[in-house]
From TrEMBL:
GO terms of molecular function: exonuclease activity; nucleic acid binding
SMART domains: EXOIII
Biological processes annotated in GO: rRNA processing
UniProt key word rRNA processing: yes
A Gene Ontology cellular-component term: nucleus
Source organism: [Myrmecia] bisecta
The name this protein goes by in its record: Exonuclease domain-containing protein
Length: 198
């Protein structure tokens, strides 16, 4: 199964009327080994000269000369096509990129019971990383690569091989792999699998 994890980081702006605008400004996609397969800043499409004030998040120096959101989103769409996609708050990140991805291929860690607090309340990724991975993240600015890796590691460690949290297709793949493993081992050791044709 091809697994990828997505994370999006945002730039925060204030309009002239005082309302806030949050736009994607950094995107990273990593594989299950934590290697980045796509990473880019993206221009949020906001001009500070048009009455907007920068209020935080990904710094202007990082995204000012970056490609526009449409270009980055198109790259991400190609990258994730047909892949199982992991993320923490995946719906939000996909919506920010104006992308859709088949529900059967989405694995949003924010929805799984082991990652929720009392009363089913969602926990922050930073909190989960400390509790379950013994890892400090987001100690400085948020980093899309670091967060994508944390989401992937949480999924692989606690969800990927836990049948009670699998969708139907994952469960079929899981048990099929368990069934085939002894036969593959026997073949690798020089034994030939015998098929009963009765």
């Amino acid at each position: 199964m091809d697994l990828l994890a997505l994370d999006v980081e945002y730039a925060h702006f204030q309009r002239a009327d005082g309302s806030l605008l949050i736009k994607p400004a950094e995107v990273c996609v990593v594989d299950q080994h934590g290697q980045a397969v796509y990473r880019s800043f993206c221009h949020p499409g906001v001009k500070l000269s048009n009455g907007f004030k920068f209020r935080g998040g990904v710094q202007e120096a990082d995204w000012l000369e970056a490609p526009p959101l449409q270009v980055v989103a198109a790259d991400v769409r190609k990258c994730i096509a047909g892949k199982v996609l992991v993320g923490h708050g995946l719906n939000k990140d996909l919506a920010a990129l104006r992308l859709s991805h088949p529900k059967r291929l989405q694995r949003d860690t924010i929805t799984y019971p082991p990652f929720r607090g009392p009363g089913g309340q969602a926990k922050r990724l930073r909190e989960l990383a400390v509790e379950l991975l013994q890892r400090e993240i987001q100690s400085g600015r948020h980093d899309a690569g670091e967060d994508a890796i944390a989401a992937m590691d949480l999924y692989l460690k606690y969800i990927h091989n836990a049948p009670e949290y699998m969708g139907y297709q994952d469960m079929v793949s899981h048990y099929l792999q368990q069934y085939l493993q002894p036969h593959q081992t026997a073949t690798a050791n020089g034994f030939r699998a015998v098929v009963d044709k009765r």
